[in-house]
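Example for tutorial group B:
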């Protein structure tokens, strides 16, 4: 007998976005990217007082959740918001918090 899924697809997506935003550095990166078109990882490492490897892990979490996308422009990586998923995340959070 197959078990029914308890959580909706939207709840699963919301949890994935929430997990990706569960660190202040990631919240900072999302805030920064929402105010500009794109940013290079090297520029972020100059602004944030953390190791480049740590920043890389934070960017990886945001990218895996689909909130940002990266484009390699050797020797740097340019990061931008994934606008579609960011809008979806905002909608899901808004619906959840009402």
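The residue assignment follows.
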């Amino acid at each position: 007998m197959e078990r029914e899924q308890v959580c909706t697809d939207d709840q699963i997506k919301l949890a994935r976005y929430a997990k990706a935003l569960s660190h202040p550095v990631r919240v900072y990166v999302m805030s920064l990217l929402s105010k500009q078109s794109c940013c290079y990882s090297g520029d972020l490492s100059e602004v944030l007082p953390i190791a480049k490897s740590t920043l890389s892990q934070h960017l990886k979490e945001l990218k895996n959740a689909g909130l940002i996308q990266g484009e390699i422009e050797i020797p740097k990586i340019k990061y931008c918001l994934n606008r579609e998923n960011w809008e979806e995340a905002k909608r899901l959070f808004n619906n959840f918090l009402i």
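The chain has one domain: 9-97. Compare this with the pattern of hydrophobic and polar residues in the output above.
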